[in-house]
Specification:
The protein has 4 helices and 3 strands. By secondary structure, the protein is α/β, with parallel strands linked by helices. Helix 2 packs parallel to helix 3.
């Protein structure tokens, strides 16, 4: 019975050590954004008939933000969006709280 207990403890210790090593290596491979870049944001201008392109761009920026950091928010700049583009933009804002629609970028800076 003692041999079984020692085997279980050794297995749990090995799993814990592998987990700690994995977390350490993944933190070194994928650095997060630095303190100076926390207030930065990415601006995506959108016009009429660019709804599908807007979604692809925002999704790519979200992946980039997750992998590399560098900016906190994604701002969709309304440059004459049609109804379909507005609907897609509002859905993107609903999906992620760090995505915002803005008509005038200078007003967005004042709110921050």
């Amino acid at each position: 019975m003692q041999l079984l207990e020692d085997g279980i403890i050794a297995a749990l210790a090995a799993v814990g050590l592998v987990t700690l090593l994995f977390l350490l290596i993944s933190a070194l491979v994928r650095p997060r954004c630095r303190a100076g870049a926390l207030d930065a944001f990415a601006v995506v201008p959108c016009r009429a008939l660019e709804g599908e392109k807007l979604e692809q761009t925002v999704r790519a920026l979200e992946r980039s933000r997750c992998e590399y950091g560098g900016f906190r928010r994604i701002v969709i700049l309304d440059r004459g969006m049609d109804e379909e583009a507005r609907k897609i933009a509002s859905l993107l804002c609903h999906d992620d709280f760090d995505v915002t629609i803005c008509n005038n970028l200078s007003q967005f800076n004042e709110l921050e």
